[in-house]
Amino acid sequence: MTTPHFTPLVASLPSTVPFVGPETLERRRGRPFSARLGANESGFGPAPSVIAAMREAAGDVWKYGDPENHDLKQAIAAHLGVSARNVSAGPGVDCLLGLVVRQYINPGDAVINSLGGYPTFNYHVAGFGGRLVTVPYRDDRGDLGALLDAVKRENAPLVYLANPDNPMGTWLEADAIQSFIEALPETTLFILDEAYGETAPASAIPPLDVDRPNVLRMRTFSKAYGLAGMRCGYVVGASEQITAFDKIRDHFGISRMTQVAALAALADQIYLRQVVGEIAAARRRIEEIAAANGLRTIPSATNFIAIDCGRDGAFAQRVLEGLIERDIFVRKPAAPVLNRCIRVSVGPRAELDLFEERLPLALAAADQSV
Amino acid sequence: MTTPHFTPLVASLPSTVPFVGPETLERRRGRPFSARLGANESGFGPAPSVIAAMREAAGDVWKYGDPENHDLKQAIAAHLGVSARNVSAGPGVDCLLGLVVRQYINPGDAVINSLGGYPTFNYHVAGFGGRLVTVPYRDDRGDLGALLDAVKRENAPLVYLANPDNPMGTWLEADAIQSFIEALPETTLFILDEAYGETAPASAIPPLDVDRPNVLRMRTFSKAYGLAGMRCGYVVGASEQITAFDKIRDHFGISRMTQVAALAALADQIYLRQVVGEIAAARRRIEEIAAANGLRTIPSATNFIAIDCGRDGAFAQRVLEGLIERDIFVRKPAAPVLNRCIRVSVGPRAELDLFEERLPLALAAADQSV
């Protein structure tokens, strides 16, 4: 039977899921995880004020949300000290990344990311026919010099960097980022993904400069704000670049409930500060657990710790599998060199207790299974 | 200053909002509406069981939702009597429509819609460089013969029809739809948007045939289920077509809370039947109000009624504006012939009481303002 024809680009793409969800693993395993420490979620949860706001709004969700996200954009803009014309919001940074690729990338255009950088960004690059060019990390950090060289060599319209970094947790200082920005060609758009901005030292965050048309800063409510399951991210930039999101976005994309949750989260900065403290304490705890097992950790400004398992990627993979078998959900980087690590998200004490108990077992099993 | 270059397609697009939200109008007016009857929402609300499920889930939204929407797809498939391989879900039919256009439309390809058909579909056609070809309604219904002629004349890879129809509320019988499907070229994909399927007579819904690769059926939780503000739609079709959504969708697009809400809504078919009854009663009430004002209504299988204001589009526009001035949010079709109507969504008694009170005032004002 003849069938409808996919576009050549879509026909060429694999059906894929950039991240295998813990629910998928649970279904395969036939039992739930005891500790959910793999997706860089915030086990400390959203603020009680946010939970209360969502509960109160539950009866109102027969109404579409505001397609302009007006109140949310105003609140974000006020929080950041910029104009609402410099803010667009979307259902998660993932979605916003796709919109940016669609805005700037013609099929075949080069797009620069670090080797091992955020897979969902790469997914969108492939999805719009971009040509992904990757640059190895240096010392577990994005290599700004090499990224800049690649931009120039490839005449790339788009370059991506997460700062703080995922999956390694490392960060670059603001002055280094600023120098990178100033050295970029004016026609190259820089996506600076600051999903972990709230947990970063202030020294890692360059000042916002919304007069610069070639930088888009991305933030999210998924991490420190504890709202990964509600889908809300935002992008800050020059007004011409921000207005362009209205050309192609799904206007009702951020649910009404999510707008309520994000507004309430932003309003509760006291809770945010408290959680950032808990995250820092949990990072130290994970570092101590690793050290007690003779393992080095990578300094992190995020809500997770990359633990260097001390050998090759195959060994770290076995450690990962050993933890998953023992009902501890963690993930690990896939790219060379980084793949010597497992990545453990922060979480409440009870979950880290389980991790502490089972890491040595997983390490021993990984050691013996060679 | 040189700036990053949008793709030629994106550069050519306007920044727009396909629908101006009632919140935007409220901000402009400086006061809220008293009756929200314009967006085909369900003022009867989601089921109490759904509200309870959302309230219970509020503390869990620090977790990402399942990116495979596994449980939701299983439940939808079981509800429809198909396999989960024949179901994909997304954050609203709006989003799914965009994904379909992206899958099948190369720049310049013809896409067929009715003149005055769903604007957000047209927005996506423009957004991916499709060439929209429209076919006038006939007797306030989609004109299947003319749509088929246009498909063949334009060699169109894609044709869209909402049944029941928005913005007119009319419906076509299943056998007419089925004949249209059978007459379509096998390479033309037919999007059959059944957003209002739950309120339609059974005779309007063709049997599901998931062996046919060139029909995608769309459904939503936004209308009868009362969850417009949560963003959940789904698409049913042949497995090869369904799998293709995994090539380009945002995998975390449906929020965790939304998955909870949609699952609970699907499980409460008793509430759905009750609401469908309330919707039908409210339709009759709107018809009576119109008749009391000497106005004809278009028979509707949806959760709204198109009221023929009996004169031209300019008059109906004045009636619309008169209602909005009087704090009644309604909308109207923009396309020729259809634009003689205003479109009034069903709602609870108190809101329809206000509509009944203020429609005659708006009509009189519209009459006098010539």
From TrEMBL, chains A, B:
Pathway assignment: Amino-acid biosynthesis
Stored PROSITE patterns: AA_TRANSFER_CLASS_2
EC nos: 2.6.1.9
Keywords: Aminotransferase, Pyridoxal phosphate, Transferase
All copies of domain Aminotransferase class I/classII large, residue ranges: 37-355
Required co-factors: pyridoxal 5'-phosphate
Listed InterPro entries: Aminotrans_II_pyridoxalP_BS, Aminotransferase_I/II_large, HistidinolP_aminotransfase, PyrdxlP-dep_Trfase, PyrdxlP-dep_Trfase_major, PyrdxlP-dep_Trfase_small
Gene Ontology MF term list: histidinol-phosphate transaminase activity; pyridoxal phosphate binding
Sequence similarity: Belongs to the class-II pyridoxal-phosphate-dependent aminotransferase family. Histidinol-phosphate aminotransferase subfamily.
Name this protein carries in UniProt: Histidinol-phosphate aminotransferase
